[in-house]
Amino acid sequence: MGLRGFAYRLLTGEKSGQIDDCYRKMVAFDPRGANPYLEAVVRHARENVPHFRDLLANAPQDARAALATLPVLTKDIVRAEGDRMLAPKDPKWPRKPHKTGGSTAEPFQFLVDLHHQYWARAAELYIFREFLGLEPLGTPTVEMLQSREVWSVQRTNWRRNLARKVARWDLQQAFVMNEPHMRELVEALRRRRPVLIKTYIGSIYQLALYIREKNVRLPSHPRHIYCTSELVRPHMREVVEEVFQCRLTDVYASREGGPMAAQCEKGNYHILESNVTIEVLDDAGLPVEMGGEGNIILTCHHNFAQPFLRYSLMDTGALGGDVCSCRRRLPILKVLSGRVSDHFRTADGGVVHGQYFASQFFEKPWVRQFQIRQHGFHDIEFILVPSAQIPPDEVAGIEERVRWVMGAECRVKWTTVDEIPRTAIGKHHYTLCLIEKK
Ligand SMILES: [Zn+2]
Fold first, then answer.
1. Which of 80-84, 251-255, 399-403, 425-429 is predicted least confidently?
2. 207, 242, 389, 412: which has the fewest Cβ within 10 Å?
3. 438 within a domain of the structure (yes/no)
4. What is the pTM of this model?
């Protein structure tokens, strides 16, 4: 693994052996045969998880045939079933609540085991090596990620900071994108000359617009831009690829499934079938024909603590067969609609990433669903479907954090509803900016 890898692992305590082992299995995986990982998780769920034990009691032995008998699993069912969704504790595979990352308009907590975490890390490694042609460790990278990660890394210990230096990763916040911060980011790009920029589409798009508008000259261009968590809309991709003169690789990922599909150089998303099974079903839960649009349904192969079988991701897409002019044999998924977040605009001409606001509700058990709207520079509305009494002290804390980025005069309105209005424009938006564009 080399000196850099050794130093990185020494500093982070990361178990590279297990991750490498999962990675090798991903490389060796043949999507044309039976899927041993799907078989294992279906067998495990059927034997050890009360919810699935009941549903699969009379199902066929074959994993795919058994899966086809299951109704689609929703967040509501998972919440209602509670502990019946869990397997008994396995001392070999410690488990913990999944808390970080991702974006969703429905806060939701579940358990993941260490096994799942190794496979998710292996999937990252696989995408780096097989899709980008890069080694993550040692590749000069600028990561523009959510501020919470930035803060937690800076706050935690010197070991993690040193580990990032060893790995050559530079971490920048990507939430508050105002002019001073854009200047800092441009400076970081000049100084670091990254080969890779890892970020959200919304943030890199804002930076690309800034670079174009100010006619900034960069000394070098990255080889790749790696985006995840949000739907990449074509107009954004166009601007980003033109400004940075490189390919944007999007990874379709979810909190429940980790990285699920990665985009190849031909623009197709290939499903990582060693890790997940993706189906496209109609509203009645029946498969749509190849190429037809429907709901994207996930079966995650490696989370044995709380298996997700036939789980609705609330995105729509289409399966595109397994023929791509790149050499990869993994089947193709077209993602048609997914999570979208608007940036909110500040009076000084800056923007704040929608996820900054959405993250205020992560891990809040009293929120079932939410949408956040910006009506004016100083006028923000939280629309909530509460699941319990809203605690007043938390309201004060959230308002304070909103004013911290939007200005002290910002008004925050709280509206509770029974259901988030599913208007055409708002269907997949967890944040909506309603200020007329100039
Ligand atoms: Zn391809």
1. 425-429
2. 389
3. no
4. 0.86
